[in-house]
Fold each of these.
Amino acid sequence: MDFYLNVYFMLGLLNLQTITVYTSNMGKIVENSACTFLKSKCPGTPGWDDFLILECIQSDSSIILDDSCQHIVWSHTRSLLDNNYIQQITSSVCENDIRNLNCKVDAAAGTYLKCIATNRDDITSFLKECGKAIDDFGCGRLNINSSSQANTIICLQDHFSQIEEDQIHFCRKFPPGSGKVFKCLMQHYDEHLTDKCRNHLLRRQRMISEDYRISRGLMRACKEDIRKAHCRRQTSDDKSIRLAQVLLCLENLIKNGTRIDSECEAEMRDHRKILMEDYRVSPEIVDGCSYDIKRFCNDLEVGGKTLHCLMEHARGKNSKKRIKDTCMRALEQVIKESDAAEDWRVDPVLYESCFHVVKIACKGLTGGDARIMTCLMDNIGEEVMTEECEDALIQIQYFVARDFKLDTQLFKACKEDAKSMCKADSDWENPNKQNPERDPLVLPCLYRNAFHEDTELKLKPKCFEQIKRVMRQRALSVDLNPKIEEDCLEDLAMSCFDKTAKGEELLCLQNNMDKLQQQCKASIINYTESEAEHIELNPYVMKNCKEVMENICKDELDNENGDVMNCLISHKNDVVVKNNNRCRLSIEHFQLISLKDIRFSYKFKIACKPYAIRFCQNEKTKAGVVSCLSEKIVNDTMQGLKSDIQKDCRQQLKAQLFQQRESIDYDPKLAKACENDIRNFCSAVPHGSAQILECLQSTTKQLSEPCQIELFKVKKEEITDNSVDYALITMCADTIEQFCPKYEQEHVLDCLKKHKDETGFNKKCRLVVIHRIIEQNSDYRLNPSLQENCKLDIRKFCGDIISEEKPDKELNGKVIKCLRKSFRQSRLTNKCEKEMVGILRERALDLRLNPLLRAVCKDELDTICKIESDEDDGKAEECLKASFLNRKIPTVACQEEVANLIEESQADINTDPLLQQACALDILKYCSDIPQGSGRHIKCLKVVMTDKSKDLAPECISMFKKRIEMYRNADALVAPESLEQLYTQVIGSPVKHYFFFVILMVIGTIFVIGIFCGRVSRRHMIIKNK
C-alpha cells in the first residue's frame, strides 16, 4: 500500500494542481464516526480531502488508529487506487503518453497505477513538468542500462525527505499539503534546522520571489483580489510574475482605501516578511549589493541582519564607508516591496530588537497601519527604549524619510493634499507611470504648506497633525532629514566626525554654523528657523522639558510661533526649571543658537525684520541687530525724538535684551570687548543671573576702554528702559509688587528709589537700586531726570567738559562735579537746583552713593570712621565732617572733598539731612515763609539763633553751632569762587580787621600816589602853557 501512496505522491509532484479533491461514495474519512478524531490530529486540512488526510496519517507517526478506523482508512485507500479514478487524474496532463502505454482500465484494482509507475520513464511530460525542480535541486541523473528516470525521481524524493525530517521535528501538527508546513519551518529558520532543509527553504523562497503562483497559500487567499485589481495585467506579460509585483499591486489597493480579504492580508504580510528575512530572496539585492555585502557585511549570518548591515552603511557619513548607489536603489526597492514601515512584524531584526520595548511602551496596540512604528518613534530617548531597538528603527526610518508614500499614516492623511498642492501621484504604486519620481519632493512641499498664511493653501487638519508628528519624530537625527544629510555630508565628516550619539550631529552643525559650507549652512539655517517656530522640532527641549512644559507652559502648548519656547525662557529661573538641569541647559543652548541669526527668534523676526533691513543692514547676527535697534531707540529717547520703531518690535526687542542681560554669553559683542576684564576681575563669578554684568559695573574705572564703551551702552539701555534690567527686575520682583504695583516697568527704578529706605524693602533689591543710583551719578546721561531738568545748566556751565570727551565714553562723574560747583555758587536754575539737592541728599545719607568721597577718604574711613554697616544713615559723612572740624583729616584731597560737602550743605540745608532733621521743627516754625535754596534757610537759622526772643530746640542749636564752625573752616580751606564768597570769607575770618587795615593801606597808598602824580602833571601843564 505504501508503494502505491508514494507513487501517488510522485504523480502529485508532477503537478499538484492536477489532483482534485476526492470524495468517494463512502463519504470522507473524517466524516465517519470512527475517524472523527483525525480532525484534531490534522487541523487545517483543506476540505478534509481524503488524499491529504492519508498524507497526514502517513507522515505523522504519533497518530495511532484503532481497528475500526484502520478499516475505514484502508477502504478509502483502496478506493483512491481505483483504476477509473487514476485515469481521471492523470489524463489531464499525461493523456497522450498514457494512451501509448496501453494500460487497461478494466483490469484488477491497482493495476492501472502499477502500469503507469512501471512505464513512467516513457512519460515525456515528466521532464516538461519537473524540469525546473530538477534544475533547482540538481537532480538530473543517468541510468546506463536504460533511459529510465528512476534515479532522477529518487533524487527528488530524497530532497523531500530531507525537509520531511525537520517538518516532523518542528511542525508535526501541520499536515503536509495544508500550506502551513512551509510557514512553520520558516518560523524555525534561525533554530536548529538542518543545512539541507534551510537550503531547500531558501530555494523555495527564491522560486516564490520569481513567481508568486508557486505559493499555494497566497494564490488561494488572494486569487479573487488579484483578479479584481488586474494585478497580472498591470505587472507583466510574462508567464511568471514576480512576488514583488503582486505585493505592490495589492498594497496599492489597500493604500487607496479598498478592503481586501483578511486571509489575503495575512498571506501578504507573510510574504513581505520573506523579502526582509533573507536578502538572497531579492534578485535586486543579490545583483546590486554583492560588492557591498562582501565589503561590509561578509562576516554576518545571512538573512535580515545582512539587510540591516547594508542599511547602516547606507547612512554612513564617510563616503568611503557608504554603499554604492546601485545597492541604495536596491534597498529602497526592497523596503517599498516589503512595506516594512507599515508593520513592524515584517522585519525580523526589528521585531527581535524591539519586542520587549513594544511589550512595555506600546502595550495594547496591534501591529499594522504603522501604529507600532509610530509608538516606537515616539519613545526614542525614553528609558524604555534600548539601543538595539533604536538602531534597527532608525535604519528603517532612514528610507521611510526619503519616500513620502512609505509612511502609512502620513500617506493616508495627506494623499489628497499631496496631489492638489504638490502634484503627487494619487496611487501608492503605479507601474505604468512615465513621469520622474516626485516622492522625495512631496514631504518638503507639505512642510511648506503646513503653516501657510493663506487659509486656502493650508493643509487639512488630519494631514496637518501627521505633518507635525513626522516633523517631531524626524527631528531626532540628521539621518531622518534627507535635505540636511545630503547637503552637510562633508561638513559632518569634517566638523562632527566625533559626534556619534543620536542627535549630536545636528547640535554640532548648529554650533559650527559659521564654519559650514554655504549649502549646508543654508539647510541648517532653514531647519533652525523652523525649530524656533515649532517647539516639537527641538528633540532636546521636547525630551528634557516635557514635564516642565506641561506644568508651567500648558496654555502655550497648542500654540505655534515660538510661544512655548518664549514661555520656557521666561520661566528658566523658576525653581521647577532650576531643579531640572537638562531642561535648563536645553533652553540655554537654544538661546545661544538663536543669537546667530534674527530668523531663529520667530516673533522677533516677524516684528523687527523691516527695521533691521532699514537701520541695521550691516549686522549679520541677531545679537548685532538687537544691539543696533536698541541703540537707535536709546538715542531717539535721549534726544527727545519719537522712535521710528513701532511698539511690536520694541516689545520683542525688550524681550531679547532682557535675555541678553541674564548672561554675558548671550551678548557676544560685550563678551568679546570685556574678555580680558572678565578674566582679570570677575573670573570667579558665575555667568548666570546677570552676575558678570554686575561685577563689571562695580569695577568700571578699572576696565579697558573697549569694555567701558560697550558697558556704557548697556547702562544706557537699562536706564532708558528698566524692564530690560535683568538684575533689577528679578531681584526686585516681590518688592515691585509690594511698593510699585501700578508703576510701568520701564520707569520702575524711580519708584524703587523713593521707597528704598522704607521698612520691609528687600535688602538685595535695595543693593541693586543703590548700584543703579551710583551709575546714574557717574554720568548725567544715565540719569534721565537730571538730564531733563539740567540740560540748560549743563550746556551753559559744563559744555566744555562734554565737548572734550568721546560721545560713547562714560564721563565718570565729571558733569556732576561741574554741577556741584555751580550749585555751591547758587548759579543753577530752580529745576536743576532741586535735582542736585536730591542727589546730594542721597549721597549724604549713604556713603556708597559718593564713590569720589570713598576713594579720596579711604584711609580716614578705615581708621577714624569705622562704620560696620553699609547702611550708615549719614553717620560716615558726619564723622568726616567732625574730623574735619577737629582738624584730624591728614589727606589734603579728603579735606577738600569734605569742605565741598560742607559748602554744599551751606548752600541748601536739605543736602545736610542730619541738620535738616534736627532743625526741622524750627525751620517749619520760623522759616516756613522763606523759599528753599541759595542758603536761605541757613541764614534764617542764624538770624533766629541771634534773636533772644526766639528759641531754637537744644538739639538744633548744638548741631547748628558745629555747622557754623564747619562753615568757617571750609571757607578757610576752599578758595572763593566769586566776590560774594570772598566778602563772606573775609567777614567770617577772625583776623578780618587785619584784612580791613591792609585794604585801607592799599587804598591810602593809591590816593597819595594819585595826589603826587596829579601835582606833577599840573606843573608840567602850567610850564607848557607859558
Note: Confidence is low (pLDDT under 50) at residues 1-24, 235-239.
Amino acid sequence: MNEYIARYEQHKYEGYSTIDSLLFTLSTLKQNREDWINRNKLKYFGIGLRFDKNPFFQPKVTQKNIAIIGTVIEKLNALKVSPDYQHEGETATTRLEMFRILGEQFGELSKNGETQQLFNHVIKEEGSIDFSMRESTLITPSPVDILTENGEPYVDEQTWALPSIQAMIESKGIPVNLFDPSETDLTLEHDLQDHVQWAYSRIYQYAYPSSYDDTLIARFHHGIQHVTRAANYARVFANLYRKYGDEEAQHLTENDIKLIQIALLFHDSAREGDNEDLWDHESAILLYWYLTRILHVDSQTAKWVAEATANKDPSPEKGYFELNEDEDGQLSWQFSQFEEGFFPPKNIYQKIIHDCDCLDIIRARNQYDANYLDFYKDIASQNELALEEMAELIIEARGLIHHQGDSYITKDEARKLEYEHEEVHARIQTDMQSGAYPILQALHERLLSVEELQTLTLVDLTPFDDTAPMTGKNLAAALREGRILARGITTPSALPKPKANKPILPDETLAEKEIRKSMRAEGINTKSRKEPPNPKDKNPLRSTSILGYGSGVYPAAGLLIFNPNLKQVRRVSTEDFDSGRGQKAHLAHLQEKEYSESREMLGQELTDLHHKMKLGLFGKKNQQGSNYVEILYDIDRYDAIFYTNDPTIGNSIAYDDFNPAHRFSPLLQAVYLQKQYERQYEATRAAYRERYGEEGEALFLQRFGSDPRLPIHEYSGLNNSLVPCDAALLTKENIVHMWVDMCSDFMRDSLLHLDEDTSYYVHDSFFYSLNVEDIKVCSMYKIKVNTLAQKNQPADLSYDEPLRKQVSDAIEKARENIVAEYEHSLLEKLANNQESALSTTGFLVLQYSPHLREQAADKIKADLLDFVHSGELDACQLASISLPDVPISTLDIPHCNAKARNAFCKSKLIKAFILCQQSGLDNEAQLIRNKLGEWAKQLLEDNDLSKSGLNERLKLRQLMMLMDPENPLLPAVNASVKEIIGQLTTHYASNKSYLQSSYQLIKTLDGAGFPRSQYQDEFRVVFDKMSEALPALRPSDWLYYAKVIKLLKEEPHPVINRWLAEYEDKIYNAEDLLGTFKNLNFTLSDENLELFNLLVQKLHFNAEPRRYVQLPYWFRVIKRLEALTENHQFSESQLKILNDRLGEIAATLIEEGQQMSPFYSYYSKEQKGYLQLISYAKEINTILKANSLPVPDSLINEFHAACNALDQFDLNQIQFAKAEIYLVKAVHSQLPGQEERAHVLEKMTDFMNTKAQAEKEAPGARTASGL
C-alpha cells in the first residue's frame, strides 16, 4: 500500500469523515510534492553534491499533478460547504459526487502514480459501501471506468447480449447437463437441504477451471460452506428487519425466505476464481435457470429473485439491471435508469441477500466494517438496541466461522473439510443450535411474528454497577461497556533480553518485571543503575486493549484492569499503533500535564472507539491476528488475570502459530501469573510497612486490596465472553494433571515425528535429547528460544518447591510410560517387518534405547546383512552422502549435535556401520570400510583439483576419520586436500576476489574439521598479497582479512596500525569494522593515543559518503569504539579527543543547517525559524541521550538563539506539534541559560493551550482517536 493510501486509511480509523480524510491526505500529498520540487530544483541547477542530483527530475509533470490536486481540494471543499452536504452529511449521493470529482481528474494524473492509486483506492473502497464497484465479465464498462472517464456512462435501456447458457456452463468447468430437468424432481417446496445437495453435487464440488490450489477443497473461499452459511443467515436478517418495522420484511413468507436462500446458494455459482467477483451477473443467470428449468418457478418470480441477486449492490449510475428472456430463451441484461438524480430503492430481497453475503465476509477480513450492512444504514445506525443486537450478531458470526475452520486468522482445512459435502446444511444448523450463538439460534429457524420479536430479549443491556462485584451480569455489563482493559504478557515465564547499559537480574522473568513495575511507588520495587535510584511510580504508558465486542488480545495470557480510571488513559487507538515495548521514551510527552488531553476529549475518543468496536472496526485492516485496539494506560494495579484459547498474534510471534501450543498452555500461563502476583504482593506489602511504618499497611491495602490471589478468567473474543475460572478447580492436584496432560501430548506428538529433519531449527528439539524442564517449556511454548525474550523457561517457576517437584516427578513418570509404550509398539513393528532398523525412526530409537537393541537384535542383524550383501551397499555413492558444515568428532548419536544426527540419519551406509559396530558384525563393518577405500582410490585417480573435488575429498576424509581412521589411504587423501588448497590459494592471490574466496575456503575447511595446522602455511601467499595492497583494503574487506590473520596467528595490532595510517578515505558504515577489530582482540589505550585520534578522525559522521551529519549513527559507532578500549571505558585523554571531534562535527552541522536554508525558502520565516529550533533540539537530544560527551557550546548557543528568535515571531504563522514542543522543553531543562529562554517556552505553551481550547469550542469540532 502506498504511503498516502495508508495515511488516508489512518485518518478514517481516527474517526474523520471520508471527505475530511481525503482532504487531509491530499493536503499532505500536495505539500510533499511542492517540497520535492523545491529540493530538487536546487540540485537540478547545480546546488548540492553531484550524487545528490536527481536524474529523473521532471518538474513539469509534478507541477501538473500539484495543480490537479489543488483543483480537487478546491472542489471537495466546495462540496463540503454545499447545502446538501451541510444538511445531510455523507450520503450515497454526496459520496458519489466526491467520486466524480476524483474521476474527472483521474486520467490527467501520472499513470499508476501515487496520486492516481489513491484516487482509485478511494473510489473503489468507499464506493463499495453504497454501490457495486466491481468489474463484470458481462457488463462493460465497469463503474470505476465510468467514474474515471475511461468508459461511457450507461444509458437507459442499454442492453448487453449474453452468450448461450451452454457456452457459459462449459466455461465454468461444471457438468454440461446442469439444468437437465430429467435429472431431478426438485421443487421449491423441498427442504433447503435438498437444494444445498443439488448445488454441491452439480456446482460446488468442482474446482474452478483454472484452479491450481493445493487443497482438497474445490472452492476454498467461495464454496458450499460459505454459500450455505450465508443462506442460513437469511431468516436471521429477515427477523431483525421485521422487528424494527420494515414493512416489506413484515410481509415476507417462508416461500420468500426459501427463494432468498436459494439466491444465496447461487450468488457465487458462476465464479471462476476466488479473488474479486467478476461473475455476479452470470451467477444470477444460473440462478434464473435453476428456478425456471429445475424448480419450475414462474419466470416473473425467477426474474425478480435473479435481479435482486445481481443488484444486491446498486449501480453508481443510478439504475437497475433487468434480466429479460425472449421467446427463444435468449437472455439479456438491460439497464433501466431511475428518476433523474435519485437511486432506485433496494427491496427487502436485495437487502437480505446483500447483508447475508456481507456478514460472511468476516471470514476473509481481519477487520470487519458493519457500515456496509444495509441493516446498519437503515436501522442500527439510528437505534441503539438494534445496534447492540447487530453487534452481537457480528460476534456470533465471527465465532461460528472460526468454529467451522474458516476464519481469517487461522484457516483450518481439516475442519473445513467437515463442511465440504452434501449434508453441510444440517451440519451448520447443528452448530447454530448448539447454544453458543444465541441470536442465530433464536432467529434462524422460522419467521417470527412482530409480537414475538418485540417480546424477545436478544441482548441483556443491564447497566454496569461499579458498587457490585465483578461477577455474572455485572461482569458482562462491564465487558459490554468497555470497562475492562487487558495487558497481555507473551511467554510470561521467559527471561527478558539484556539491554545495553541496563543489567537485568537473571531470575526476573517477563511476568515478574511487569508485576513489579505495576506496584512501584516512591522507591518501592524500583531497580535502577543509578544511586540513589530514580523515584518511579506505577508502570506508565503501557499498552493495553479493551475487551468486548469480539476484540481479540495480543497474547494467550495476561492481566486485567477493571473499571479503569480515565485520568490514567494516555492514548486511544482502534488498532495496535506499534508503540513498541519497553520504556516508550518516544511517547514520554504523553505524560506531560500540558500535553494530556482533557478528560472530555479522551472520554469522547473512548466513546467513538467503543462505537467502532460494535461495528467490528478494530485492529489493523490487513494484518492477520491484529484484531484488537490499543490503549496507552498508566498502570498502578491489576484486578484479575485472563487467559484465552483463541488464536493470537502473540502466539504467532513467539512460535509461528496463532493457536495455543496446547489447550492447557494459556491456563497454566495464567496460573503462573497468579502465583507470581502472590509473591510480589507479599514482597510489596513488606516494603510498604518498612517504608511508611504504621500507616504502610493501610496505604498498601488501599491500593492493592486485601486478597493476594487475583482471580483467573477465561476470555474469548470469538465468543465475546469473560468467564471466571472456578478457583476450586485449580487445586494442586488439578494443576499437576494439566501439566502431565500437556507434556504427555507433546511427548507423544514428538515421538510421532522423530524422523523430522531438525537440522535447520535454531534449537535442538529432538525428543530424546530433552530433559523434563525442556519438555515443560516445549509443551507450553513449542520452542526453547524466544524472539521476544532471552529464552523461554518453565512456567512452574513461581510454584513453591514441593509443588514444582510434584509436577516434575509426574512428568518424568509419564515420560517413562509413554516411551515404554512407544518402544513396545516399535518393537512389534520391527518384529512384523513393518519398520526397518535402518529407517530413520527405527535407527534413532535404537540409538537411545540399548534395551530395545537387545530385544530386537535378530531383526537388526537381518536388516544389516540384507543391506550389506544384497547389493545395496555396492550401489552406494559418495555423492549421495551429505555432511553438515560443522566438524564431527563422533558417531555416537546421543552425543552428536543436531546437524550431525540429521545428516547421519539420511545415509543408510552410516546408519548400517553404526549398527554393525553395536551388533558385533565386524565383517560387515569392514565391508563398509572397504567401500570408503574404493571411493578413496577413485578420487585419487580422478585427480580433480577443483573446488568440488576438494569438497568430495573433505567429505570422504571426515567419513574415514569417523569410520576407518587407520585406513592406509587416509594420508594420501590428506595430501590431496593440501595440494588443492595450495593451488586454490595461489590462484586466489592473483585474482581480484582473492580475499573473499580465501575467507570462504577457510570456512569450508573449518566446517569439514580439517586441522588448521595442516593448511595455514598455504595461506601465507594470500597474507603476503594483502600486505602488499594493504592501503587499498576496504573496511568491508576486514571481515575476510581477519579470518586469514587469525588462521596464521598473526599479531593484528601492527597490521591495523599500518592500515589506519595508510588508508586515505573516510570510514563509512564503521560498526561492522569495529566489531571485526574487537574479534581480533585489538585494543586502544593511552599508549596508542595517536592511533586512537587517527581512527576517530577517519570515522565519518554518516553511514554513507554524504556530507550531512547523522549524530545517532556517530554515537552508535562511538559506542562500538568504546568496546575496543581498556576495561571498555574511555580514558580522560580519549574523551578529550572525542569531545574535540564532536565540536568539529557540531560546527559542520551548524554550517550545514545554514547552507540548507534555501531548501526551505518556500516556508515563512516564522516556520523556518521553528524548524531550525526543532532541528537543533533533536541533535542536542541525541547527545544528551548518549550520556557520554557534553553538548558543544556552539550547539547550545545556536539552540539558545533559535529559541529566542521565536519571541519576535507571530506564532499564528507556525505549525506547532505538541511532541516537538515537549522535546524542546526537555532539552531546554538540561542546558544552561534556562532563565533567558523560559519566557519564550511559556509563550509557546500558552499559545498552544489557547489554540487547543478554541478548537475544542469551535462548532462541529471532532476529535480523532489516537491523536
Note: The chain has six domains: 3-130, 162-312+347-452, 472-724, 732-821, 835-842+849-958, 1156-1267.
Amino acid sequence: MSEFAEDEVELQSLVKQFLRSISDKISSAPSPECAEEILLHLEETDKNFHNYEFVKYLRQYVENALGSVVEEETNNLTREDGQHAIGSGHDTLIHAVTQRTRYSAEYQQMIHTLKNTMITVVESLKNKSEEDQLRKEETHQEKQHRQSNIQFTDNCSDSGSSFSRVRENCLQMLPINLDSSKPKEVRWEALKVLCRAPTSDVLSCESWSSLRLNLCVALSEPDPDLSDNALRFFAKSLSSSPLNVTREIYTSLAKSVESSFLSHKLSFPSGSATIDVNRPEISRLLKQIRLMNDFQKEVTNFWIRHPEKYMEEVIENTFSLLSFHHEHGSPGTERVLEPVHLLALLDVKATWFKKWMHGYYSRAVILRLLERKYKSVVSGLLNNKDLSLVYSGKELEYCCFVHSLCVLGKLIIYTNGKKLFPIKIRKYKDPVTLTDLLINVVKCILIHLLSVGSDVLSPSTLVMEVLWMLCEQTECATECLYQTPVIEKLLTPVILKSPAATLSLIADILAHVVIKFRLLDKELPSLCESDMPHSLCGAFILVCRQMYNICEGLQVLRPYGLHKALAAAWKKTSSLSERVQTPVPGAGAGSSTQELQNTLIWEETLLDSLLNFGATPKGLLLLQQTGAINECVSYMFSRFTKKLQVSSCEKFGYGVMVTQVAATAPGVVALHGSGFIRALVLELWSVLECSSDDVRVVPSVSVLLSSLQSFLYLVNLLSSSQSVWELLGRQPLANKSEYTLREMPTSIPDLIDRLIAVNSDVKIHSLFRYEESHTFGLRLLNVLCCNLDSFLLLESQYNICSMLLQIFSVLLRTIIIDSLSVERNHVLVRVSVVGGPSERRLPPRDLQEVRYPFSLSHIYKGFALEDVCFIHFIYIHRYGIYLGLLKEEAANDLALLMKHVKIFLSTQRVKTSSELSYPGHDWLASTVFLIMAGNMEKSLCLLVSLSSLLTSGFIWPARIHASIHFPKEVAESGIPPVYWCTAHYVEMLLKAEVPLVHSAFKMSGFTPSQMCLHWLTQCFWNYLDWTEICHYICTCVVMGPDYQVYMCVAIFKHLQPDILQHTQSQELQIFLKVRWSQNYNIHAIFY
C-alpha cells in the first residue's frame, strides 16, 4: 500500500484531469446533492468513463490489492460446490466471491488506505487551488495598487518619498472637500482623486463614514459631473472589493436611490406611448439601478463563501428599495414612477431574481424576508397583475409587467413562496389569492395583444413559460393549476370558439401542463363532430389523458362524459376507416393513401386515450361502460408485441395498466381474448423449460431468479378471485396420458396441469427441469391460495389438497428434505388452517429454516373433505370451533343461513343475461355468523338490518353485486363497487398521504386497489386476528363507510418500511399476499 505515498503527485494530477473532464456535468448541477448524484451514476451516463486515466489507475490498484483474494475465494467456492462452475451459476459464483471479498481483511485495509490517501490528495488540491486563487487576487490588487499609486502620487505629491504621508492627508481632506457646501469645482476634484485612490485605502480610512454620506449626496446631485463621478467610484468599489466591503457599498447605493425616489416624486403619463429616459433625473436613477442590477447578477457567484449576514444585508436592502411606494399616487392620468419600473426596463425577465432563487442558500433567506418584513414587494408586483389589459403600447408599464410576472412565477414554484398568499395590496378591497393571480395571468392569452418587442417577450410566450415552469413541479401544479377557476379560464377559447391561433396556443400550453381538466359543458359531443382539426383535438386529449390516468384528475373530469365522447369518436372513425376505398392505380392513390393513414393514426390515438382510463379503478369502470374495453386491450397487446410503451403518459410500461385491467372480470376476459395471457404463458414456459441456461433455485429469493418477472406477471394477473374464476371456472385439466416434448401450455389451466398438478410420471417426464418448474408451480399455488375464494375454486375443481396428500402418501416412509416437499408442506398448512397472524403458525418454506427432517404425511390424515360443495362451510366451522364461538352441530345452521341470504339477495339484483356473475363466498355473512356465536336467527336478522345501511354496499360485496340500486350499465359491468369506489379513493389518498408507498406500487407494477379488493372481499380473513376483524366491521358500521378507506390507507402507512424494503427486492406482491405475518392492532394503526 506504500505505493500511494510514492504516487501521490501523480494521483493529484489524475484527479485534477478527471475533474476537468467532467466539469461540464458537475457545473450544470443545480445543487451539491445533484452533483453528488451525477458522480455516483457517472459510469451509467458517461460512455468515456472507463477511458479516464484516474479510473484506470483505480482499477489497477484494486486489481493489485484484491486480485489474489478473488482468485483464492473463486478456487475455494468451486471446490466446495461444483454447481458454481457451470451455466447461470456463474452469476451466483460472482455474487458469492464478491460477498466474501468485501468482508475480507484485505478489502477493509484497501478501503481504509484508499480513503485516507484520497482525503490527503483532495485536501492538497483544495489548498493549492485556494493558494492559486489568493495569489491571483494579490497579483491583481498589487497591479491596481501600483497604477493607483502612480496616479495618486502625480496629483498629491512632488516626490515619491512623501507618498504615504500625502496620501493619508489627501484621504482626510476628501470628506471636507466633498461636502455639499463646497463649490462644485472642489467637489469635482475631490471625486477625481477619490476615483484614482485604491479602494481598500478609501474604505479603511478613519473618515470613511462621513465620506460615504457625502458620496450618497453627490449621487443625487442634478449635475452629471458630480453624480457620474460618484457613481464611478461605486462601480469601481463593487467590482474590485470582497463581499464584506461591497455589501456596504451596495447598501449605500440602494439607500441613495431610495432617497432619490422619496425626494423626487417622479411620474409618467399612463396614457402616453413613450417616456423620455434622457430626462436628467430619470437618466441618473437609471444608471444607478443599472449598476445595482449588474451587481445583483454577479453577487451569487461568490456570496456563498461569506457569512449569511452579508448576503442577508444585500437582499434586505434590495427588497427595501423595491417595496418603496408613495402613499398618495399621482392624480389624473399620471402614474408614479417607482424603482421596479426602472429595474424592469434594465432586466425585463428578472434574471437577477432567478439567480437569487436558484440556490437554497439564498432562496431560504429571500422567502424568510418576504414573509416577515417585505410582503409589500409581492403586493407591489401584484399591483401590475391587471395592467396586461391595457399594455398594448406602454412599453414602460409592459416591462414592469414582464418583470413582475417573472419574479412571481419564480416565487410561487416554492412552498414558502406560495405561503405568502393571500396578500393585501393597495387599491383592492379583498386580498389577492394565488388563484386570482393565475387567472389574471392567463388573461394575457385570451386578449388580442399587439406584439411588444420580439416574440420572446410577447405576453402569450411569457405566460406559457410561467405555466411550463409550474408544470415541472408536481406539487406546485396541484396547488396552483389544479383549480376549477384556472381551468375554466384556460378553456375559455374552446367554449367561445376563438380563432385557431388562440386555440393552438392554449392547446400547446395545456399539452405541457398536467392539470385538472374542467369543461363548462356538462356533456361533450363526439370529437369527430367538432370542426377542430385532429392535431388540435389530439393536444387536448393528451392533456386530458395526463389527468384522468390519476385518481384526482378523473374525479373532476368524470361528470363531463369525456369517455363517452372519445368512444363515440372512435366508433365513428373506425367505421370511416372501414369505408375508405382501396387505392386504385392512376386514380388519386396518393391522397387516398394519406387519408387512410391519417384516419388510422387518429383511430389509434382515440384507442390509446380510451385505454388510459384503465389506469385507475373508477376509470376502468368508465372504460368498460364504453364497450371498447376489448379493442383497447387488443391495441395494448399489439403494442406489447412490438415492444412499444403502452403510451407516452405511462411511465412504468405495462405493469400497472395490465394489473389494473386484470383485477376485474371484464378486464381479464379482454386480456384473454387479445392473446395477452397466451403470450405470457408461452414466454414463461420458454424461460422455465426452453432456456439454454442452467437455472438454479437461490434460497434467498422467493422464486427462480430467471423467471421472477414472469412469476410477478402471473401474480398480478391472478390476484383477483374474479380473474381466477374467469380463467379457470369450469375449465378442467387436461391430464393427458402422454405429453410430447414440444407441447407447450397456452392457457392458465394448461399451466396448472403442467406445473402444479404434477401427479403422474408422465407429467414428471415431460418436464426438462422437473424440480425447478414444479417449485415454480407450487409457489404460484401458494400465492393463489392466499385468496380464499381462489383456493375454494381450485379445490372444488381440481382437488388440489387431495393431489398433494396423494404425493405425500407415496413418500410415507421417506425422510423428506427436498425443497418440493417443504413447499408442499407449506401449501397444505396454509390452506388447511384459517386465522390471523397470531392465530396460526405456518411452517418454513426454505430448507435452511427447517429445524430437522421429518415425515409429513401423518399430519394431514384427518384432512379428508367429504363434499367439495361444502368446503367453505368446513373451513368456517373449523375456525369458529378454534375461536370457541361454534359448536360441532353449527355447520348445518351456517348452511341454512347462507341459503336464506342467497334467496334474500337474489331479490335485490337486476335480471341480467351477463355471465359475469358473483363467484365468491359471502365472507361477511360468515363473519356475522361467528359474531353471533352460531345463532342463525340473530345472524339473519342482523344481516337484513345491515342491508338497509349505506355501509353494507362497501363491507358486504355479495349484497351490492349487480344491485338494483345501481344504474343498469354499472350493475351489469361485473366490476364490484369495492373496487371502483373504495379502492379508487384508497389510491387517491395514498398518493397524497403516503407518496412513497404509492410510488413503490407504481414501480413494482402492482396496485393498491388489487390488494384492497383482496382484503375487503374476504373481510381480512387470514390477515387480521378475529378481534381486529370485529373491530373493522364495527368501525365501518358505526363511523361510516369512509372508514373502510381510512383503514386501508392506515394499513399501507403502517407497512411503509416493509413495503419499501420489499419493493427493492421485487417481492412486494409476495410480501403483501403471503408473508404478512405481523400482528396489527387497528387502534394502533389509526393512531
Note: DSSP finds 60 helices and two strands in the chain.
